[in-house]
Amino acid sequence: MEHPIWYLWRDGVAEGPFPAGQIQRWILLGRVRREDSVSPDGEEWGRVDDWADELVPEVLQADLSDPYNLQRLEAARRWADERVEHDPASFEVERREEVGPARQRMRALHRQAFGEKGNRGVWRIGVAAAVVAGIIGLAWWASPRDEPPTPDCAAAPAPGVDWSYCDRAGAELIGKDLSGSRMRETGLQRADLRGANLEGADLSFALMGGADLAGANLRGARLFGTDLRGVRLNRARVAGANMAYANLRGARLERVDLSGVPLGNAIWVDGRTCAPESVGECD
């Protein structure tokens, strides 16, 4: 049984109730620690880890020695921060509070080793380095170069559109031509993409839980690390797509030909993790 609301114990006082999603976001951002006390009813208390299945985001339970999982965690934290409005002053206080013990120790050791006089020397070196960096930066700025593409979250659906990092949750995109589009880490939860043309689209790390992709054209699409939990992929065309590390738990794959599709380390529809060399089927 999942609990929709939770209480949090801080400084000897019970706070709440808070929605479960809010607690999960705070855990993801480090504002609630896994050893903190929580309760679903204000009476039965336990550590966050005691309720890990309900409260600890999946990305925090993964093996963080894997660079891929670290990238997923960074993406999830960006999403957690971008989906709310922050007061700049309070946000800066939160960031200062989140400085880890290791960095605090390094700062203390630096003060002990250099003191005020040493700090002045470091300051002079820093000024000189800044001047040199400025000259190099000016030369780089003046040299011809290709500008990186800039996402346009307000752009209408069209081939090659760049919606990277945008929130398009619940969007009605039935039959739209989005071929070659850039949608890295885009929020497409519950989006209606039936019959859409996503050929060659980059959907790496996109959040697509509950989306409807029935009959969509995903040929050559990059779905690396994409959250596809509970999506409908019935009759979708996926030849040449890459689904390595994707999360397909609960996805519907009726009449989908996965021949040749990389599935290494993907989470399969039944929750098991596919072998790294899996292609076309989850081994």
UniProtKB/TrEMBL annotation:
This is Pentapeptide repeat-containing protein. It comes from the Bacteria. The lineage of its organism: Bacteria, Pseudomonadati, Pseudomonadota, Gammaproteobacteria, Thiohalospirales. The keyword ATP-binding does not apply. The keyword Repeat does not apply. SUPFAM superfamilies: Pentapeptide repeat-like. Keywords: Membrane, Transmembrane, Transmembrane helix. InterPro entries: 5peptide_repeat, Pentapeptide-BTB/POZ_domain. It holds the Pfam family Pentapeptide. The chain crosses the membrane at residues 121-142. It comes from Thiohalospira halophila DSM 15071. Gene3D superfamilies: E3 ubiquitin-protein ligase SopA.
